[in-house]
Amino acid sequence: LLKVFKTRKNLLAIRGKFIIEKLCQLLDSQKIYKAMAQFLITYIDDQEQEESEQKQQEETSSDLEFCSLMIQSLNIILLTADSVYIQNLRDLVQNDTKLFLSLYNAWCYDPISTLSLCLMAKMYELGAKLIIYFANIDITIGFLMQVDKLVTLIESPTFVHLRLELLEPYKNPYLLKIMYGLLMLLPQNNAFNSLRIRLQSASSFGLLQDDDNLNMTNHNNHKKGKKTSDININIE
């Protein structure tokens, strides 16, 4: 199937989503995704071996581009498909570390897909480390379009858990770092404004929570004969 997708590029763009979703429906979606991930991980090595045996000189960059496009397609299906089979797979990725790792190794062909996988699986610390390395990537129009699409997907039902976790920034500092990292990557367009407003709303609620926590601490300390405002904090 991967060889067909590579030789018939239009097929992946036009019918790829339908074919992959149908396979997940007829077979086990987890097995399909794990198998495709494993094939893509070894795809480049297999191609290089065939080239050396057949003495063919094909550019490795074209193979890497195909793997990246394939991962983008698999990722979009995983994040947006409404079928029960894909929804169950999303739940498994969030709860099964082994499954996450098996997909992660292949998802590394595409940076934004890798980051979105981390967000979906709630691997925020890993995602926060990844986004720092985006500074070493060539920021192309295609890359920015992917970031734009990811920000749009954050507003979808798939990431409702993420948006709710933004209400507790002190519990999810790595998630906040990822969100602000995406904000810094984007030009000032509609996606930028959407994410900025979302973060401002979450930050305002977080400040209200901090005030509630401070008032509770003051109340408890007052019972002990001590106020938070009386505590000396050494900034240095």
Secondary structure elements and pairings:
Blueprint (H helix, E strand, L loop, with lengths): L1 H6 L1 H18 L2 H26 L5 H21 L3 H12 L1 H11 L3 H10 L3 H9 L8 H14 L5 H6 L7 H13 L4 H34 L13
Helix pairs in contact: 2-3, 2-4, 3-4, 3-6, 4-7, 7-8, 8-11, 9-12, 11-12
Calculate Rg over CA atoms: 22 Å
Mean pLDDT: 81
Structural class: mainly alpha
Distance between the termini: 61 Å
Task: Please report the total strand number as a whole number.
Answer: 0
Biggest sheet, open or closed, and with what strands and sense? none
H and E order: HHHHHHHHHHHH
Shape: globular
Task: Explain this structure.
The chain is mostly helical and 236 residues long. Helix content is 76%, strand content 0%. Residues 211-236 have low confidence and may be disordered.
What descriptors fit this protein?
single chain, 236 residues, 76% helix, mainly alpha, disordered C terminus
Task: Give a short summary of the structure.
This protein has twelve helices and no strands. It is mainly α.
